[in-house]
DNA ligase
Amino acid sequence: QSVLKSSGKDLYPDWKAGDPVPYAALCTTFSKIEMTTKRLEISAHCSLFMRQVLRLTPDDLLPTTLLMIGKLAADYSGIELGIGESLIMKAIGESTGRTLKIIKEDQQKIGDLGLVAAKSRQNQPTMFKPKPLTIRGVHSGLMKIAIVEGQGAQGRKVDEIKKLLSAADTNLPKGQAIDISTDKGGPSEAKFIIRALEGKMRLGLADKTVQVALAQAMVAHDVSLKGEKVPSSEQLKKGEEVFKAVYNELPSYEVIVPALLKGGIWNLREACRLQPGVPLKPMLAKPTKSLGEVLDRFEGKDFTCEYKYDGERAQIHFVAHDAAQNYAAATVAPAAGKSDRGISNIFSRNSEDLSKKYPDILAKLPNWVKSGTSSFVLDCETVAWDVEKKHVLPFQQLMTRKKKDVKTEDIKVKVCVFAFDVLFLNGEALVNKPFRERRDLMYSAFDEVEGEFSFAKYGNTREIEEIQTLLEDSVKASCEGLMVKMLDGIESHYEPSRRSQNWLKVKKDYLAGAGDSLDLVVLGAYYGKGKRTSVYGAFLLACYNESTQKYESVCNIGTGFSEVVLSELHETLSPLVIERPKPFYEHSTGKNDQPDVWFEPRYVWEVKTADLTLSPRYRAAAEAFGGDGTHKGVSLRFPRFIQVREDKKPDDATSARQVAEMYRKQEAVGKEKKISVDDD
Ligand code: ATP
């Protein structure tokens, strides 16, 4: 079976092994993936394509992988797409000789810019056949679009998009028809280019599936090099495990894929290890509603209760100059802090480079790194600090700091770093060591400096009264509550990118019965009434479904806003108005359920809710609860606006899976209560 052949005939007769792989071939695979919801089939298409690229033109494996996950580079590079609708429409119009008015009309009718582009290309007579698009050509074209900055950037972006679109769909082999009468649209290159530009491929192809496919392709390749036909299921499983372990520690295809090509899958563990310069995805915590729940979960085990500081997650990386040559990747990330001692970076919870936001932290780093410490990766929270009164300030203070190009001399809000974990120290990865040991190592490698660097306060106790006191003390110290963590054994290892049962968060407001807190994406708004006529009075919010890459509506919200906040929100949201909902917005189609305006997905808000219920009007986690044809999703009752989460992007919003979990938990508790009441 070949992705470059159909019924035994070459689809691309002029193409030969080693040549850049046609983008159309990848689009055909995308189209097949899109046509099925079966996980195994999706994975098989993906892995088959990768295997062939590996055999025929291995140099294309990296751009293929990146285009499959809909990214251009690792997150820490800061290079990403997510181009606004108006720019894309302009480019489609200009590249296909159609007016903006017609493009807008098409968009109104079709609702999917990818299909609008496919249709526009299809109806356009081409005088000459441009050179076919290649995978690496599309990747580098998209890259140019993503990194253009400065004066005239918008115009240059449009020009680059036009270049890609003009060559799209002109060299489709026979039998590879584009059919926009179906809502999928077939293997149109234009369609997939637009989706990449929008930053949502919507193939139902989860990052994890691509990882498994890549691992399997590597195992199959290895087996075929040895003259065997197919790998055994154990070999495949082992390959997946190796890949997963490596990716968890070093989530960068730019480093991993070249290593795979050089040494194969079985040498990957040796070739790629956690290293300063490449941020790991942080371990996350599960929420709990009572100290009783914590004790139940950790029964019989030793655990620790740390203050939960209310600031911004920060992963600080450092490597001394004389050790830097050991870490190729240290130079991959844009190293921002250079001192006499070494190179350092700070990354956010989404692996964004925060070095330009916190030059003050990097400048003071030599004050608290002990002289014998040559390299490290620290997990910390940066917290606003009152220099005079010498205590922690609320989160809102921190948010007033500028985000980019901060000059140390202009900084008004000072920050202190509170370190709670060390993941790498002096050349050694520590993620697979017990937390107790990691913590000891952390204490041995750094010095506390008041107002600059501290270790997170903690108490190791199993006594509920003592935990209660710790919780109260943490709140008095302007913290949000406690983080409770396992201390020993495999359960206390650091689990990158996992929301783990072994880290529990206890927030004071959860305990006060104030309900759940969620971070939601703003999709639309309703015009205000009465006093609020000149602003938006209520909003439609959504959670994020990671597997479908769609935003699923979860509530309307009109409470918790002051007049000032409403007018600020009106100002920031108005420029984001779009013609109609994006195809990746899931919401009831009922006539009365539609907001007055829709927005580009840009903002995340923290919202509190009394409880959750099921409603046909919303679509959150509808896969789990509305499968019986009722299309019911989970929705929030009495939601209240808390604040804008500047530190979160739409894809970091509370996930549909988390919403489902919250709902199930609430139902389970509800039942328990009912039973105990009945028992009485
Ligand atoms: P999420 O809801 O995705 O977990 P969040 O940013 O809303 O993320 P919380 O859920 O409130 O955060 O709690 C986890 C966060 O708490 C961590 O990501 C970290 O930024 C912060 N934090 C503060 N103190 C600690 C600590 N001692 N240990 C671990 N995390 C801490």
